[in-house]
Amino acid sequence: MFTKILIANRGEIACRIARTARRLGVRTVAVFSDADAQARHVSLCDEAVRLGPAPPAESYLRIPRLIEAAQATGAQAIHPGYGFLSENAAFAEACQAAGITFIGPPVPAIRVMGSKAESKALMARAGVPLIPGFHAEEASDARLTQAAREIGFPVLIKASAGGGGKGMRVVDDEAGFGPALAAARREARAAFGDDRILLEKYLDHPRHVEVQVFADRLGTTVTLFDRDCSIQRRHQKVIEEAPAPGLAAPLRAGLAEAAIAAARAVAYEGAGTVEFLVQDDAFYFIEMNTRLQVEHPVTEMITGLDLVEWQLRVAAGEPLPKGADAITAQGHAFEARLCAEDPARDFAPSTGKIRHLRPPATGPHVRLDTGIVEGDRVSVHYDPLLAKLIVWDVDRDAALRRLRGALTEVQVAGIATNIEFLGAVAAHPAFAAGALSTRFIETHASALFPAPRPADPETLTLAALFVLLKEQRLTAERARASHDPYSPWHRADGWRLNDDNQYTLDLRDGAELVRLIVHYRPGRFEIALPSGRVLTALGTLGDHGELVAEIDGLARRATVVRLGDDLVVLSGGHQHVLGLPKAAEEATADVGGSLNAPMPGRVVQVLVAPGEAVERGQPLIVMEAMKMETTIAAPYAGIVAQVFPAVGEQVEDGSALIALEDAP
């Protein structure tokens, strides 16, 4: 076993690897960019080396700098984690040339499986089923267009060198093929430095099922069962589970056999995942990921094995810790990816400071893998994944109840997250029934993306109670600091000389102003809502906004976080933002007809010019953020009055992009 390893990654996976290494007595070296100097993974490791500025190309993707860091610290091996250089054959070769063990498969396996075209040709020779498609290594746009016609629309455009949904587009007809191909090439070039493209027939209701494989240098190859990763947005996984539910025994066995055949075809070593599309009891090879998967914890939960430990042992030349006959699975596990993104804005990335963070209670049934702490800043430079919530129980129904419950405990404020969206997926009857496909989110969009609703009476009362209890606390502190602490003017019970003891509180709920009338009563408040309903409320307020309340005799727990002029009410897995008076006034101001950036990012295309007439839904600008492209479309028909950013310009969240005028 190694005595010291360097972890060439950041965030939750770097923390995850460090945890296992520490348990095994292996010292760890963290690497960090300037944006990550105070990150959690740096503090968890024994040593840390700065790589460079925040952009990945100047830090986490600098192969020579990583090799230098390993040599300078005496690390015997490098664990690449996932993403970044984890499937980069040149990096594995550089490690080998420097006498450093790359904790991953051999270079030829990375190279072959890193090329979707080459890997599919190899799988065809190995007898692994493939989706009909066009897999030539080099192809012009014209040849790809011809191939799309031959396959038949709809087709799936995929980056030959990549994964994770980057460089991937579904195209329904030939008219949309050219623009989608250009966008896929740009995205692939930005993410992988390689814009080669392949095509596949698009299946209309497939499941995404993958098989975890492990192999050692002695020629032993095993599977650690399967996972279902069908719940996806933008071709990136959202919720995964193990084992894949509802598979017939022959189908499950066929998947395992095909995965073993795929691994043996490239003389594989270490951890790998063979991904398939499953539709109508048939399955087709997609790709093999030559690294540890983001969703590996669900396999760990059902097998009781530590996959990172297995990686370290195999890389050190040891045999697999267990043979196929000794590997068993028990129960069911889910993983939900908590991301800094806004589902209501087409999952636009969200950046900023995490002002409030409360994880769920963890234990044998609930696990949280994360690389963040309260106060961290989410950067535009990296993947939006914040944490992975993993649950286990004796069967799928019980595990799903665990997932739903744990999601209600997670609280994040300061940035947009997908927590409520994950809760909506977990609560959906079709998900509970195991009716899964990669189009699940699209199919059930109306239930998963409900229209914004006004704050309910309890939410308004909780916000009012927070304001009132906070004011009582501040008043008491001012009284103690005064020369006359017992003066009635320091009372916070609404006392007024010759006047009624009431208080008016205005809140902003979206575009609406909500006026609450509070009457102070001994030991409680009476809060009159605009509807005329009056609620009786009392409670206690913790130092971090924890609110234990009683509303009309019913106990309620919530957390209220003040962010500038906003109150964020967090309760039961939901959050509602209410503005305080100053913000309410500003919110009603006319902001004109400008179209603003939905996130910070770089402008990669400007598709219109001033004076041009545009239709509702017409693409105007293409932005890139967190390695993904987002197209900004016209919200209504009009005339482009002004275009503010230039191609290549970095813009901030909310920056004006285009001024639109009504059509004459």
Automatic annotation (TrEMBL):
Alphabetized UniProt keyword annotations: ATP-binding, Biotin, Ligase, Nucleotide-binding, Transit peptide
GO molecular-function terms, A-Z: ATP binding; ligase activity; metal ion binding
Span of domain Biotin carboxylation: 1-446
Positions of transmembrane segments: none
Highest taxon above the source species: Bacteria
The keyword Ligase is assigned to this record: yes
Requisite cofactors: biotin
Keyword Manganese: no
Residue span(s) of domain Lipoyl-binding: 588-661
Domain ATP-grasp: from-to ranges: 120-316
Protein name: 3-methylcrotonyl-CoA carboxylase subunit alpha
Organism of derivation: Pararhodospirillum oryzae
Lineage, uppermost ranks: Bacteria, Pseudomonadati, Pseudomonadota, Alphaproteobacteria, Rhodospirillales
